[in-house]
Design brief:
42% of the residues lie in helices and 11% in strands. The protein contains 17 helices and ten strands. Strands 1, 2, 3, 4, 5, 6, 7, 8, 9 and 10 form a ten-stranded mixed β-sheet that branches. Strand 8 and strand 9 form a beta hairpin.
Length: 501
């Protein structure tokens, strides 16, 4: 059976191809007309064969315009659960006024003449889909060239639009075929065995906070984790503490995207966190003698550690995808942290609202985590509804909820784990209601959604002057629904919690 065809058509009833794409050096766009005929013929010969190719092909996948109309008719009949054969397809095209456009009933009958059946349908459909993708790439490249030559828009916007279109094409090719369950079983059993061999029970990437890791089993490959908080609650400080635990203490490659701070500002906080020197002292250079000694002794802990920083302002999801792929393949990065999600953009697409844009960003981050098989942690800003709630003396009266995620409910849907950071003393709440211990210098880490495990609240010590969180030193700091693990907490180090992070 022939593949690509070109040249003059001799049959009078032979339908014409679609309008030719912009060609390069007079080349004919990629096509497989005879295989398109074979696909359509097989679909009309074998009942229910349409569903074998429905996810792979669309009407626009066909090079010949008549074939596009015929596939549309087959698609319509299948959607209506009507039989698909020569007669029904002919009648559907006649009803739509397209029968003569495709070459008449004779041409439809000819499509089934040289087809024995649907044995090779899937293989042929893949060829048609690949040719279609190649034509789309040509069209994409042609538009990029035209836009670049016209010089009517800023280069940055041209790049963003090109990335957006290329992202669409990539997503079209990332569809996975169904897999029988027992084919996946060996991988699952291997992971269970690997987890069983770990004495700490952590199968993922440990955050360094034991009680949190006990519930999550560590941040898992392919997971999107969202950590939300209102300003000045310490979400960046918490992320930096994890960075120290993961990339500096355990030398696991980590990439931190800082959309708000410069790399120098971020490194100031890393140094403060590692050396436990107040950030204010580092900023002013007014260090005590012992602090200079500490800085000299502990700065070596940061040298040669696999911590990578990116300060690109207004980072688009398409830029992030490109940088993340490169970091994983070239640097072996095992964790990505983004500070913060709402500062990202999805330039290149037109949106009716910011909520729709955020929805694409969160969906893309989840897709990227699965593709790279690493956890991605996105910090997120919460809306002001927390401040609008009626305040009471209870420590949880201003506690964040899933509905507080700013600008999009899609963040909650896409994320595997949604967490919040809350500091009751910021709102003037002085004691925890369950044990009357002080909230001064304390933070609460709330797991509000956990797709694969439990939820609960965990108390942490907030050391604001060091941009740092630490586990509470009580036997257990878990509260809420995990009451079986409950316990009282000790008074926390108050710290300088006037510094917003």
């Amino acid at each position: 059976m022939a593949g690509s065809t070109s040249g003059k058509r001799t049959r009078k009833a032979q339908p014409e191809a679609k309008v030719a794409l912009t060609s390069f050096d007079g080349l004919v766009p990629p096509q497989a007309v005879e295989i398109e005929k074979a696909v359509l013929g097989a679909l009309m010969l074998e009942q229910d064969s349409f569903f074998e190719v429905a996810q792979l092909l669309s009407p626009s996948s066909f090079y010949v315009k008549a074939h596009e109309h015929i596939y549309e008719a087959i698609q319509t009949l299948s959607a209506q659960q009507k039989p698909v054969d020569i007669l029904t397809v002919t009648e559907e095209l006649r009803k739509e006024g397209k029968l003569e456009l495709v070459g008449g009933a004779v041409y439809i009958a000819e499509l089934t003449t040289n087809v024995a059946g649907a044995a090779n349908l899937a293989y042929h459909a893949h060829i048609v889909a690949d040719k279609s993708t190649s034509r789309e790439l040509i069209s994409f490249a042609s538009k990029v060239m035209t836009d670049a030559y016209s010089d009517n828009e800023e280069v940055d916007l041209q790049v963003q639009q090109a990335e957006a279109r290329l992202f669409e094409l990539t997503q079209q090719k990332m569809r996975n075929d169904m897999v029988r369950a027992d084919k996946i079983l060996p991988t699952v059993l291997q992971r269970i065995e690997e987890a069983a061999n770990k004495t700490d029970g952590i199968s993922g990437l440990a955050s360094g906070f034991d009680e949190i890791d006990h519930v999550t089993a560590g941040w898992q490959p392919g997971e999107l984790i969202v950590i939300g908080a209102r300003p000045a609650m310490g979400k960046t400080a918490f992320a930096l503490t994890m960075l120290k635990n993961i990339s500096i203490d355990r030398e696991i490659p980590t990439l931190f995207f800082s959309l708000e701070m410069s790399n120098e500002d971020l490194m100031n906080r890393v140094v403060s966190n590692v050396c436990e020197i107040p950030l204010h002292n580092l900023r002013t250079g007014q260090l005590q003698a012992y602090e200079w000694e500490t800085l000299a002794a502990k700065q070596v802990d940061i040298h040669d550690k696999p911590l990578y920083l990116d300060e690109t302002p207004g980072l688009s999801i398409f830029e992030l995808r490109s940088k993340a792929r490169r970091a994983v393949h070239e640097k072996g990065v095992k964790l990505i942290i983004i500070d913060y999600l709402q500062l990202m953009s999805a330039e290149g697409f037109a949106y009716g609202s910011r909520e729709q844009e955020i929805s694409l960003i969160s969906r893309s981050l989840k897709s990227l985590a699965k593709e790279l098989a690493i956890p991605i942690i996105a910090l997120a800003q919460l809306n002001r509804d927390i401040e609008k709630r009626q305040q009471s003396s209870e420590a949880n009266s201003r506690q964040p909820q899933l509905s507080d995620l700013r600008e999009s409910g899609a963040i909650e849907q896409d994320a595997d784990i949604v967490c919040f950071l809350h500091r009751p003393d910021v709102y003037g709440i002085q004691t925890f209601p369950d044990d009357n211990t002080s909230t001064k210098g304390m933070g609460v880490f709330i797991i509000a959604k956990n797709r694969n495990g439990e939820i609960g609240d965990f108390r942490l010590i907030f050391r604001g002057e060091y941009a740092k969180f630490a586990p509470a030193s009580a036997p257990s700091s878990v509260h809420g629904i995990m009451s079986m693990m409950g316990g009282s907490s000790v008074d926390a180090f108050s710290g300088d919690d006037d510094i917003p992070y």
